[in-house]
Amino acid sequence: MWRTALLSTIVFSLTALSLVIAQLAEDSPTSPTVATRTSQRPLSTGPVATSNGQNMLANIDDPEAVDPQAPCPGYKARSVKHNTNGFVATLALAGKACNVYGTDIQSLNLTVEYQAKDRLHVWIIPTILDASNISQFILPAHLVGTPSIEHNGPYESDLAFDWGNDPTFYFAVSRVSTGDTLFTTKGSKLVFEDQFLEFKSLLPENYNLYGLGEVIHGLRLGNNLTRTIYAADAGDPIDLYYEVDKKSGKLTPYFGTSSNQSKTYSSASHGVYLRNAHGQEILLRPEGITWRTIGGSIDLYFYAGPSQAEVTKSFQLSAAGLPAMQQYWTFGFHQCRWGYHNWTELEDVVVNHEKFGIPLETIWTDIDYMELYRDFTVDHVAFPADAGRAFLRRLHDSGRHFVPIVDSAIYIPNPENASDSYDVYTKGEEQKVFMTNPDGSLYIGQVWPGYTVFPDWLSANGVQWWVDSIATWHKEIPFDGIWIDMSEVSSFCVGSCGSGNLASNPIHPPFALPGEPGYIPYDFPEGFDTTNSTEAASASAASSSQAADRSGAAGSPATVSYYRPEVTPGVRNVNYPPYVINHVQQGHDLAKSAVSPNATHADGTQEYDVHNLFGHQILNATYHGLAEVFPGKRPFIIGRSTFVGSGVWAGHWGGDNFSKWTYMFFSIPQALSFSLFGIPMFGVDTCGFAGNTDEELCNRWMQLSAFFTFYRNHNVLAAIPQEAYVWDSVAKATRDAMHIRFQLLPYIYTLMYQAHTTGSTVMRALAWEFPDDPSLASADRQFLLGPSIMVTPVLVQGATTVNGVFPGAGKGTIWYDWYTGVAVEADAGQNMTINAPLGNIPVFVRGGSVLPLQEPALTTTLARKKPWAILAALGCDGKATGNLYVDDGESVVPNATLWVKVSV
Description:
It is a single chain. 21% of the residues lie in helices and 23% in strands. The chain contains 15 helices and 44 strands. β8 and β9 (181-184) form a beta hairpin. The longest helix has 31 residues, at 728-758. The radius of gyration is 27 Å and the shape is globular. Residues 30-52, 531-556 are annotated as: Disordered. It is an enzyme of class 3 (hydrolase). Residues 759-851 form the Glycosyl hydrolase family 31 C-terminal domain.
């Protein structure tokens, strides 16, 4: 869906906007005059405003921000007590409290556990008897699973924990077999305050790190960026200075590799997972990593590996959980857009796909179908009930499926209008399932339907109310899965803006929608001015005129100043924390486009402490709702905001991307990162969501996404249509790529089953399969499907060739061209030029593989009835192996399965 922050791209690219903000920060006065406020408002929180202009909250931008390493004393370890699996100790503040960004915790408990042969746990929490920690939130296991001790040790672990008190407490984790130090806080101080935690680790020169949440970035993170982990309603930002975490994935593990280059290059992988749901800021710098959070505990898990596969599997088995097994039909092609206005348009899309011979599995609806944008309703004027039932019956009879969007906030009716009834809200309020203000009144924000309330997943009845709402709604509209959106959780206003104001419930969002005056989408992909010069010139002129009108209305940029709230020992300021992470929203205000941090849950927990978990919890509730509707069948959910463990219930899509070549490229590292996180069902809005695509970009992108697990085309309201059949060349390219995809569906389904049962990955980086090749550490323009299929897409406008490597070539690995079956002649490390005219995506098969294939069809239902085949690609030794998993394609517990191992 369209986001408020996305509208800024009409005038500036997000990269350009970030550069402007950075420059303003540099030019700001060294001692800005800012009014100090520390009190919390009872009903709402608003953006900090000063008379001299725009205020910034993020201290990373603040030239006068205090480096806590200087004034803070650190801790000293004492009272060490060893046990079977490790030891416990007390950490006492080593000097006078600094109280820089909160209240220093005087006494901490340290627990060190060797939980398994490959897993070490380091946990630092406030001492229970310390009165200063009364407001500290420690993440409970019922919200996010806690890895546990497998059995009483001692373990012969490849991880070793060392610590010391010189000059203050530090610890280090090393690999026993190689002596490599993987993590060390030596040379820095531990800072542990009620609203600010900081710990640092030195890292090797030119280190390789991957992961740390969802962001538009290359797979390898590099050593000069700041990663922010905070659920935010924003379009997909690319920021060259500070790589901020976009709205969706809130996952905190990172995966590192180290190398031994004494004689021959070899590498080993390890993982580090911080189990903390608070807002986080992770600074990667040449010397190492700094972790900052605005609350919680230091709950670290170290995974020894030593391979990427072993780290990923261990992380999933112990922490994230094994990913959900998807129904077979979900691997077909999905079509959606914001702007399908009625059942007739949806049926036309289905008919046109069949007319042009393009497989279509599922038709999706964005918010167009809702009555006044209200969840669990259908607009029976635009989408009449009888016509809908007839259409969906025909759709299901053809073996196809239907998935609607469901947003995350619930409309609250106007009490002065007796006809403004909404049972979903009424039943929820009766059961007390919505978040409140600190004074106990309903917290009322604003989303698409107007004033809204927000489900409280910590309430006693919240999940069951959601389950019942889904089950009741399915009786009206027989959907097959659910698409969860806006789950950061998003709000268009700041604070409880609807409190005492319901009579003026807005009927339109507080911003113009795409296609309305002033917000016509004129953006086209890079290179459009070369391929379509006349159209590009016209669009550019119209865009410039529109931008000028908006710029004139907006006025001149404000001067940046910094708001620095005072620290009151023992009092938390959750609305304006003393240290605010480098949040993507304007001013870095945590309440902007979100539920305010002081919103309150049924158990007294404040949103400040659990904000990043809303998207995770709504996926859990939706999973149980679909399980109620379809007993015994696997629920199909695609969600926006995620956390560690969300893959147990749902897949994920990459959010509101743009119709740009850049975003097509970044879709690959996005997908690979989610493979690491245990969410293998991943895809992006193919051809781009925001702006207008063009024939060439959509041609290339439809072919690329055919090799992702989740394959969907989706675009924004008022942009040009981008269904594959709009252009003849795109239709042909799509048919060709889908022909391969459908042949490979048994292989892809088998990979998903292996991920579901063992924690393996489906989409894979080249470096994971060939870890001892140093040239592959940053390779993310090619990828593997499982171990056997390599895809080398064209990602540059106007190109008819693509450069690619063939890992292992010359060292015992053979690669075969999918189309010709001919072995590729390549040398070790050779970067080859591959012919790839428009409409062709290079695909290669790894020698030593046996692939189960099935003849394609227009739906997976028909394809599963088609003949089978076996493709054997012999290795250098003349041998090949492969696997096939078969079940009924839908049951949680199939009554019959088949596992076939084929060898040549």
